[in-house]
Amino acid sequence: MKLELRGITKRFGALVANDHIDLTIEPGEIHCLLGENGAGKSTLMNVLYGLYKADEGEILLDDHVIHFNGPGDALAAGIGMVHQHFMLIPVFTVAENVMLGHEPVKGGVVLDLPTARTLVREISDRFGFEIDPDDLVENLPVGAQQRVEIIKALARDAKVLVLDEPTAVLTPQETDELMVIMKQLAASGTSIVFITHKLREVREVADRITVVRLGKIVGTADPSSSTTELASLMVGRTVDLTVEKDAPKLGAESFVVSNLTVLDATGHRLLDDVSFTIREGEVLAIAGVQGNGQTELTEAILGLRTGVRGSVTLDGRELVGASVRDSLDAGIGFVPEDRKKDGLVAEFSVAENLMLDRSVGEPFAKGLNIRFDYLEEFADKAIEEFDIRTQGATTLAGRLSGGNQQKVVLARELSRDLRLLIASQPTRGLDVGSIEFVHDRIIATRDSGIPVLIVSTELDEVLGLADRIAVMYRGRIVGIVTPDTTRTRLGEMMAGIEA
Ligand SMILES: Nc1ncnc2c1ncn2[C@@H]1O[C@H](COP(=O)(O)OP(=O)(O)OP(=O)(O)O)[C@@H](O)[C@H]1O
């Protein structure tokens, strides 16, 4: 099926998120949309999926103009979308999730449970998804849940599949599996619109690349272009993808974690006897496949978990048993892995979000009153410094693009007086230009004599930032190594293979 977007324009108030966009998606092609944070990629896809109504322009399928009044119409026309935040019901089985929206109702398209089960099995076998229709969705790893979303779309006969940053939440192995699946789908005639900030993935699967900047299409790129070429096309300037840093100037061992254990409600060890230290002016990066205790580690340090045993000290002050307020006041800056859930309040403005985490009182408040003049000035400065693409400080954080939401969290945490920075997946969802900026800021924090704990599933990021690397596997630290360790060895450690 040939899909054509002609002159699509979408405005949010005075902001033109999509400015007369023309785009053609040929049958069976993988078409990558590249563009910096806030360029308008997700907005365009939401128009295509019927979630937003375009102010101008039209959508054509096989040369016929079509009108969508919602995602139901888009689905019926053969356009499927896999969201980054899955829309599945965790307590339902795979087949039940696929059936949703197709229950036997009068006048509707019926998909009963036995048919849904057969369909899941058929699609899974055809593309090697390894999904059992009777598995409960909540028991599946993230990569498998994503495959269920794809099955859901294919079960509705999707001819065009939109994947909006699908690899942001995947492990490297799951990402490789998804790349294979995408190629198979394209070979079977499904068209794929693929949005990603990871240039390696673009080079691996793209048949065609379209570059969007400030709501406009600025050109196309050849998939055989180098990552450096793609990066500069995307953000309009040269980007240095390697992290430049001097040897660390190490100070005191100011952050000490000793025998830290986290138990769940049933007494199961989520974090098992973890010990490490970080010196002033040093970056320790935790490498590991997501779900091996990293989340529990950072949450335990911050005081967000119960069932914590052992000790965590910052500048000699014990933090186990302390409140989150105490930890923040001790000087911990925290960038959580899930910005939507833990990093921001979507209904608060950008400025209000930049003020969160602060102790009550000066300079943001006088008595019980917020000092709005100070807040505004502070927010404007942070917006400029961190290049947060927003209409202004009073815009609601939930209205920003994903990457720009991440920049709000980073701006807030990096602008406090820190004694320790903990950053989980600090560059998730960021474009290459912003990644370069954030990496520079993290190194500057280290160079100002602050200990830094990075948690990242991106091996490139770990290798670029770390002075030492601690590898986590099944709740334990299996080794602490230097950044000249080979990727192969790190991969083995991440899989729990001993030397
Ligand atoms: N519902 C909305 N209301 C107001 N403005 C919005 C809304 N959705 C998006 N925008 C704005 O439209 C612009 C484009 O955002 P969009 O999410 O499409 O960017 P993107 O290219 O997908 O970015 P990212 O790579 O960060 O995900 C941004 O300036 C964003 O703040």
UniProtKB/TrEMBL annotation:
It is a peripheral membrane protein. It holds the Pfam family ABC_tran. One of its GO terms (molecular function) is ATP hydrolysis activity. The keyword Secreted does not apply. InterPro entries: AAA+_ATPase, ABC_carbohydrate_import_ATPase, ABC_transporter-like_ATP-bd, ABC_transporter-like_CS, P-loop_NTPase. GO terms for cellular component: plasma membrane. SMART domains: AAA (SM00382). The keyword Transmembrane helix does not apply. Residues 3-239, 255-499 form the ABC transporter domain. It is found in: Cell membrane. Keywords: ATP-binding, Cell membrane, Membrane, Nucleotide-binding, Repeat, Translocase, Transport. Its main location: membrane. This is ABC transporter ATP-binding protein. It comes from Glaciihabitans arcticus.
